[in-house]
Write a structure and sequence with these properties.
The structure holds two protein chains of two kinds.
Chain A: H1 8-15, H2 28-31, H3 56-79, H4 91-101, H5 103-119, H6 123-151, H7 160-166, H8 171-182, H9 185-214, H10 218-248, H11 252-270, H12 272-281, H13 289-308, H14 319-325, H15 329-339, H16 353-362, H17 367-383, E1 393-394, E2 407-408, E3 411-415, E4 418-422, E5 425-429, H18 432-440, H19 442-445, H20 451-456, H21 465-472, H22 488-496
Helix pairs in contact in A: 3-6, 3-10, 4-7, 5-6, 5-8, 5-9, 6-10, 8-9, 9-10, 9-11, 9-13, 11-18, 12-15
Chain B: E1 25-31, E2 41-45, H1 51-63, E3 78-81, E4 84-86, E5 103-108
Parallel strand pairs in B: 1-5
Antiparallel strand pairs in B: 1-2, 3-4, 3-5
The chains are: A mainly alpha, B alpha+beta.
Chain lengths: ~500, ~120
């Protein structure tokens, strides 16, 4: 007698592998036109190990259960005026940055995985990408809902997706994903599935979610928990894709290594904003950026690359440079935002004396020597009523699009300058890592949409900076931007708390 | 090395060519070991602008906020243009002395080591 219910294995087979078919009257290559141009060789898609044996019916059931609990907590957070329980109103600025810089990336990830989920010839890989694609869409939605409560009480949340497409510092995350999505499906998987989701994602999510927990933001913490099981699946998929590519053909190894080098570097540059969030923006600190890098990259990543060595894969190029930069990154990045505080969609501030001491303790080799003097200068200027806002626009790196703020690790007060010539034109970079990426594919990066140049070309409104910030970026000037001190956010907070 | 693209002979549009800047060229200026300014500045200026004008009318607005700016002895400043040593000619137009579109000018001020001598 046949079983009334299919066992998991059969169900899985029928609902995934069995969805594929042989092409009898169409050319299979024409059905998957993106599969070969990157030079990756797949000899046998059936060797693909499905990273999570999840079928669509089970997927919907689990996600629906998680969603119910999540929204119950969001409701409770709103009804209990959860925003009043955050540690300090400065914390909310980290959420503004997250919503405008990271949440739209979830949407780009959704689009990217939907595309790869269509383009892979192997059905197992297609199904895995499809599920991740739906996860990413869910993450956009739940993040927006988690943070929407703050929008009722604080400035700077209103136009996050508009800002993501236009604001100068948001071109950094936006261009990162645009680069990955403009690549072929295999490079996208190494860029996002492996380098980002597997190697670097803990550096984004763990500090961010722990930061929310340490600072009383229960809505965001709960989002984090709800996304965690998805993230675990995404990491598994990232690892599977790389092992699969490396096992399929030895010719894939150098191509994959090149992508690892590129996307590790781009990812490390992207994480600059996370470093400053951890060290400067969280009123209650979780750990320093340097400590996070050591735990989540040097230890965890080190073990991973040791494991991949048997395929002929080595540590990402310039990992040694990034290791040195951990002493400097957050300080250089927050200083950049502080000095451009008139042009940011969130508030910036001078760290408190306790925070300066915490930074000295966490960065004994570098903070007092290189970075504390900057804050003393800023304090001096503020005391004179001349809060420091930079008065000209910065040079940007053509690849990562970050202002050219990175310094030589053997000479830390000197800016790094790198450049290349291509068809008679000069291009500038913050590092050897970014220069290599350009030199490998200059035809792609000559079209970098660099916000400073776009402003000069008159493509961002104007003619003055007020026009760019207010009309083109849609910042509410005097409310969204400038220092935390004296901001409407601070004034409202003080009223709620019955302070002067 | 050419890009690997699904479109044959793929070539992206060059967004930063000189023609797009309405007659200006972009010149970057950085002050070595003075990181009060997080990055070099980018200026859209006419290729016909004399170097002296860049120095006295363009640069002071932003660089002038630095407490050491007024102490600079411009005679002893060491310049680099696109990574090579360079001696600017004050009355000559930028383009005429090789300061072209997206050139980098760096200046080094011996004796001035930044706020608190810390390279700030």
């Amino acid at each position: 007698m046949a079983a009334k219910k299919l066992n998991i294995k059969d169900k899985y087979r029928l609902l995934t592998r069995d969805l594929d078919w042989e092409y009898s009257y169409q050319d299979r290559q024409a059905a998957f036109p993106y599969e070969e141009f990157e030079g990756i060789k797949i000899t046998d898609w059936s060797k693909w190990e499905d990273p999570f044996r999840l079928t669509m019916d089970a997927y919907w059931k689990y996600q629906a259960e998680k969603e119910k609990k999540l929204y119950a907590i969001f409701d409770a957070f709103a009804q209990n005026n959860g925003h009043l329980n955050v540690s300090d109103p400065r914390y909310v600025n980290a959420i503004k940055l997250f919503l405008s810089a990271v949440t739209p990336l979830e949407y780009q990830a959704y689009q990217g995985f939907a595309h790869t989920g269509r383009q892979f010839g192997g059905v197992g890989a297609r199904i895995a990408c499809q599920m991740q694609s739906i996860d990413e869409l869910r993450h956009v939605q739940t993040q927006i809902h988690a943070m929407s409560h703050f929008n009722k009480f604080f400035d700077g949340f209103q136009d996050f997706s508009h800002m993501h497409d236009r604001v100068w510092y948001l071109s950094v995350p936006k261009s990162f994903f645009n680069d990955a999505r403009a690549a072929g499906p295999f490079e996208f998987m190494i860029a996002i599935g492996f380098s980002f989701e597997y190697v670097l994602t803990n550096l984004l999510f763990v500090p961010f979610m722990s930061g929310a927990a340490h600072n009383g933001d229960m809505a965001t913490v709960t989002f984090g928990f709800s996304a965690q099981s998805d993230e675990a699946r995404h990491m598994t998929l990232g690892l599977e894709i790389i092992k699969f590519l490396l096992e399929q053909h030895e010719d894939n190894v150098p191509i994959v290594q090149k992508w690892i080098d590129k996307w590790f570097w781009r990812g490390a540059r992207l994480l600059s904003v996370v470093s400053m969030m951890m060290d400067y923006m969280l009123p209650n600190k979780v750990m320093s950026w340097k400590e996070a890098w050591e735990v989540y990259f040097e230890e965890a990543g080190g073990a991973l690359f040791k494991d991949l060595a048997r395929y002929g894969i080595r540590m990402p190029k310039y990992a040694d440079v990034i290791e040195k930069e951990k002493e400097h990154l957050s300080h250089q990045t927050w200083w950049t935002f502080y000095t451009h505080g008139q042009a940011t969609g969130f508030h910036t501030w001078i760290p408190s004396d306790e925070e300066l001491d915490w930074l000295s303790e966490k960065y004994p080799e570098t903070f007092d020597k290189y970075y504390r003097p900057r804050w003393e200068l800023a304090k001096e200027m503020e005391a004179k009523g001349e809060r420091f806002y930079t008065k000209a626009l910065p040079q940007l790196c053509t690849i990562c699009q970050v202002p050219m703020l990175f310094t030589d690790m053997d000479n830390p007060t000197q800016t790094v300058y790198r450049s290349s010539q291509y068809e008679g034109e000069r291009y500038h970079f913050c590092s050897d890592g970014c220069k290599d990426i350009f030199d490998d594919e200059p035809e792609k990066y000559v079209q970098s949409w660099l916000p400073v140049h776009q402003i000069f070309q008159g493509n961002c409104g104007g003619p003055d900076l007020t026009g760019v910030l207010g009309e083109f970026y849609k910042m509410n000037l005097g409310a969204d931007n400038l220092d935390m001190k004296g901001s409407p956010d601070e004034q409202r907070w003080n009223q709620w708390k019955g302070k002067a | 090395m050419p890009v690997k693209a699904i479109t044959p002979d793929y070539q992206g549009e060059k967004l930063d060519k000189f023609e797009n800047f309405h007659g200006n060229q972009v010149v970057y200026v950085g002050w070595d070991h003075h990181l009060m300014f997080c990055a070099p500045f980018a200026y859209p200026v006419s290729p016909e602008m004399p170097f002296q004008t860049l120095l006295t009318e363009v640069m002071p607005e932003a660089f002038g906020l630095h407490p050491e700016f007024q102490d600079i002895d411009w005679e002893s400043v060491q310049w680099k243009l696109d990574e090579a040593d360079f001696i600017p000619q004050p009355q000559v137009a930028l383009a005429a002395q090789g300061i072209g579109h997206k050139s980098v000018l760096r200046f080094h001020t011996p004796g001035l080591n930044g706020y608190q001598g810390a390279g700030v």
